[in-house]
Write a structure and sequence with these properties.
The chain has 50 residues and is mainly beta. The protein has strands at 9-14, 26-30.
């Protein structure tokens, strides 16, 4: 996806213990059939808690 493109997914796991920088590792599952997102690629993520 290009900058600011939305991708919907499902939260699979949230690590309850933060890293040294106080960030939590979150695993999200989403459709990437076109291969536009690469493993390890950084992203800015916002969660809509429904």
């Amino acid at each position: 996806p290009t900058n600011n493109q939305k991708v919907e997914g499902k939260i699979i796991t949230i690590n309850p213990l933060p890293a040294a920088n106080l960030n939590h590792i979150v695993e999200v599952e989403f459709d990437n059939t076109n291969g536009s997102l690469l493993a390890g690629q950084p992203a800015e993520v916002k969660f809509d808690m429904k």
